Amino acid sequence: MRRVLTAVLGAGALLLAMLVAVAPPASAAPGTLKEAAAAKGRVFGAAAAQGHMGESAYASTLDREFNQLTPENEMKWDTTEPSRNSFNYGAADQLVSHAQAQGMKIRGHTLVWHSQLPGWVGGISSRDELLSVMRNHISNEAGHFAGKIAYWDVVNEAFQDGSGARRDSVFQRVIGDGYIEEAFRAARAADPTAKLCYNDYNIDGQNAKSNAVYTMVQDFKRRGVPIDCVGLQAHLILGNVPSDMQANMQRLANLGVDVHITELDIRMNTPADGSKLATQANDYRKVVSACLAVSRCTVMTVWGITDKYSWVPDTFPGEGAALLFDDNYNKKPAYTAALEALGGGDPGDPGDPGDPGAVTCAYTRTAQWSNGFNGQVTVTAGSSAVGSWTAVMTMGSGQQITALWNGTPSTNGSVVTVKPVSWNARLAAGASASFGFTVNAPGGNATAPSVTCGSP
Ligand code: G3I
After folding, report:
1. Which CATH number is correct for 33-341, 3.20.20.80, 1.20.1300.10, 3.40.47.10, 3.40.430.10?
2. Given 32, 125, 165, 267, which is the most exposed site by the fewest CB atoms within 10 A?
3. Which pLDDT score is estimated for 381?
4. What 8-state DSSP symbol labels residue 128?
5. Is there an atom of ligand 1 within 6 Å of 72 CB?
6. Number of H helices and number of E strands within the chain?
7. Are 142 and 108 in contact (CB under 8 A)?
8. Residue nearest atom 16 in ligand 1 by C-alpha distance
9. SS3 for 5?
10. Of 440, 451, 326, the residue nearest 376 (C-alpha)
11. Rounded to whole angstroms, how far apart are CA atoms 118 and 303?
12. Ligand 1 center–CA 137 separation, angstroms
């Protein structure tokens, strides 16, 4: 009996070993930023603006890729308390509902900041009055969203570049150094479940400003001022990721706080080209890798979804292309690099714009007259060559293509799918092909068609 049992067990073990040997490989690498980040115990977020949520590509890219949402402007003081004690949370509430429905975390941004501050606050000159106005603002706003916010940027940009001295602001002038800790105490009282962060730019590497933040956090931790995290905004310039970013994050983490990358973008002089996009991809890879190397770096957030709506060109004319998706929601090389650095990989779905070795595309209007226009789409290969490409254009209301050259169109309602002609199908790495077309647009509707492209 014992021998039989041993034989059965032996056969079972052999069968098990065979099963293990022929078992399929572990499931495919995560195919989106949020899935890849989650597999590493991290959160990958984006800033979003309520005004763009009606654009389907905007909302669907947000929902597909990100699991944390930071309202870009909707929770700032000039929106939420434009006049004293009169509170307005309409746009922010809509973003919060969207995020909750999608299972995204929400980052509150921001309770106390010198900018986007309504004029009535700047006019207060009594310390007691401003302290009570600030506490009232925090208690009302953080109280309104209590229980829904994962992280609050409680105080934003309180230090100067260069010296690391306190930035001049009405809070600093009228209340003095203590305003920051008072703000953190008020936030904790209003929402005990949110993690409370100090957030600033140019504190990504080690410098006088990040030293000042370090010293403040160290002091807060020693004295029991409630602070849970530091946000490094990471508004970076192409080719300039600080080499000591990881060390800087680690020294902050060693104080007993989490570290978040809160507003990541990497701007370049526009127009973008293959070489700049490749440098940018490498820069994103460095930032993501630095965060992953620090166990308390738990959140990475990009400051916008698409280059189309980034703040950068408004503030730095001639610069832009700073984000992971281009104006047409194509994945950029930076997207692929960030995803790979997170341990993910693009699943390579047919027709998915931006697949490895795939293409990006850009539309320009080249001529216009009263009832029509000419357009051109340029398709550009990424870091590897492609054997062929496809562009899909959705035309505006009433628009009809009457001629198309250097491409092979097929039309289905308002959707026109364009394949190459024989001589412009193959694109070397970084190379481009363009096709042009004439649109008949009764009523003069020259709205740009929305264009996505992929390979093949
Ligand atoms: O909503 C009005 C619109 O009605 C008006 O027609 C238009 C005309 O200028 O202005 C619109 O408001 C603009 C708002 O963005 C919404 O687009 C403001 O002028 C503009 O100043 C504001 O810029 C924001 C900026 O903060 C203000 O300082 C950017 O969108 C936002 O991305 C940016 O975000 C900051 C973070 O909060 C803190 N860290 C730096 C980061 C980048 O500057």
Report:
1. 3.20.20.80
2. 125
3. 86
4. H
5. yes
6. 14, 18
7. yes
8. 73
9. helix
10. 451
11. 23
12. 21
Residues 6 or more apart from 157 whose CB is under 8 A from it?
113, 114, 115, 167, 199, 200, 201
- Choosing from 65, 72, 81, 157, the catalytic residue is 157
Distance CA 261, CA 290 (A): 10
Which of these, 421, 401, 420, lies nearest to 411 by C-alpha position? 401
* Cβ–ligand 1 contact at 116 (below 6 Å): yes
Every domain range in the chain assigned CATH 2.60.40.290: 359-454
Given the candidates 2.60.40.290, 3.30.2130.10, 2.60.120.260, 3.40.50.10490, the CATH classification of the domain at 359-454 is 2.60.40.290
Can 81 be counted among the known catalytic residues?
no
DSSP one-letter code for 421? -
What is the location of CATH 3.20.20.80 in the chain? 33-341
Q: Which residues of the chain have pLDDT under 70?
A: 1-28, 347-357, 456
DSSP 307: G
Question: In 68-169, which residue ranges form alpha helices assigned H by DSSP?
Answer: 77-80, 90-101, 119-122, 127-144
CA distances in angstroms from 41 to 56, 151, 169, 300, 344, listed in the order given? 29, 16, 37, 11, 13
φ, ψ (nearest 5 deg) of residue 150? -80, -40
Q: Are 88 and 78 in contact (CB under 8 A)?
A: no
Tokens of 390: 């496809």
Q: Which of 72, 74, 181, 263 is catalytic?
A: 263
Specify the 3-state DSSP secondary structure of 199.
Answer: strand
pTM for the full model? 0.77
Cα–Cα distances (Å) from 45 to 261, 293, 432, in that order, read 10, 18, 32
pLDDT at residue 12, as a whole number: 47
CA of 72 to the centre of ligand 1 (A): 8
The CA distances from residue 445 to 141, 147, 368, 397, in Å, are 43, 46, 10, 7
Please tell me the distance between residue 74's alpha carbon and the centre of ligand 1 in angstroms.
10
Q: Given this model, what pLDDT does residue 193 score?
A: 98
CA distances (Å), origin 91, targets 88, 94, 156:
8, 5, 21
55 noted as active-site residue: no
What is d(CA 77, CA 72) in angstroms, rounded to the nearest whole number? Answer: 12
Q: What tokens does 428 get?
A: 């070397």
Contact between 259 and 214 under an 8 Å Cβ cutoff? The reply is: no
pLDDT at 24: 40
As a whole number of angstroms, the longest Cα–Cα distance in the chain is 95
Residue 389 has a pLDDT of: 87
240 lines ligand 1 (CB under 6 A): no
